[in-house]
Amino acid sequence: xxxxxxxxxxxxxxxxxxxxxxxxxxxxxxxxxxxxxxxxxxxxxxxxxxxxxxxxxxxxxxxxxxxxxxxxxxxxxxxxxxxxxxxxxxxxxxxxxxxxxxxxxxxxxxxxxxxxxxxxxxxxxxxxxxxxxxxxxxxxxxxxxxxxxxxxxxxxxxxxxxxxxxxxxxxxxxxxxxxxxxxxxxxxxxxxxxxxxxxxxxxxxxxxxxxxxxxxxxxxxxxxxxxxxxxxxxxxxxxxxxxxxxxxxxxxxxxxxxxxxxxxxxxxxxxxxxxxxxxxxxxx
Length: 284
Ligand SMILES: Nc1ncnc2c1ncn2[C@@H]1O[C@H](COP(=O)(O)OP(=O)(O)OP(=O)(O)O)[C@@H](O)[C@H]1O
Ligand SMILES: [Mg+2]
What we know:
Layout: E1 2-9, E2 19-26, E3 31-35, H1 42-49, E4 59-62, E5 65-66, H2 72-77, E6 78-81, H3 93-101, H4 111-117, H5 133-143, E7 151-155, H6 163-178, E8 182-187, H7 190-196, E9 199-204, E10 207-212, H8 214-221, E11 225-232, E12 235-242, H9 246-258, E13 260-267, H10 271-279
Parallel strand pairs: 3-8, 3-9, 6-7, 7-8
Antiparallel strand pairs: 1-2, 1-4, 4-5, 9-10, 11-12, 11-13
Bound molecules: adenosine-5'-triphosphate and magnesium ion.
């Protein structure tokens, strides 16, 4: 669905590249996460893939089209939710969606239904200019679905939203993914990446450091640990032990045989811990 080969992007001739010779593929139906800290080059990459920024080098095909050539057909197939909401302040929520819907040559979704989906029901006839940041973000998100896109670009889809709304947005993304929509999701939030993505790319300083499934990453880099809480002389003692060293395995057996166990949990490394381990940098 997306193929990127040796793509670089410079905002100025003498500066550092914002994107530095990256290559990756996204399969049809896949939710692919671009995970990296601020300034890593995520939005720049999305901008090139969606035709917002001019491609300077490499080969990029999106939904079967070469992005260097402008084809209106391509826009019927893709949906884009930007990091910064860019809705028309003077238009109402409904008018924002309906004027956007007219740009497409394919059947579009009912504006009222979309607004309800993102929790903006009752606000249909309010001007977008009166909306809070989170509401504008939801309107932008709703708009990105209006043409039932095969390929959906989501830049920081839940950033700045309250947890309930963020959960709604995540559910909508999961539902569409289950229906077969391909998603290209950029975020610096590793929980989102872990929860929604089939594969993630770690991007830093414009370079992709690795691409893998969250599960494989945890198996490969995750420390295999067990937290045990047990009772000794009436007190609760907690120990964290590795399941991979003989000494700790022996100790785990000893505790189980000699004490009453209160809790015992195996612990996985989070994607954030793995990101730091692989790149040496934090996801901020
Ligand atoms: N319009 C622009 N002009 C000049 N430099 C830019 C422009 N947009 C981005 N950059 C630079 O390009 C690099 C990558 O920026 P980009 O917006 O792609 O990062 P990002 O990964 O999306 O970050 P964030 O998580 O903050 O959204 C940064 O160093 C940034 O300062
Ligand atoms: Mg960005």
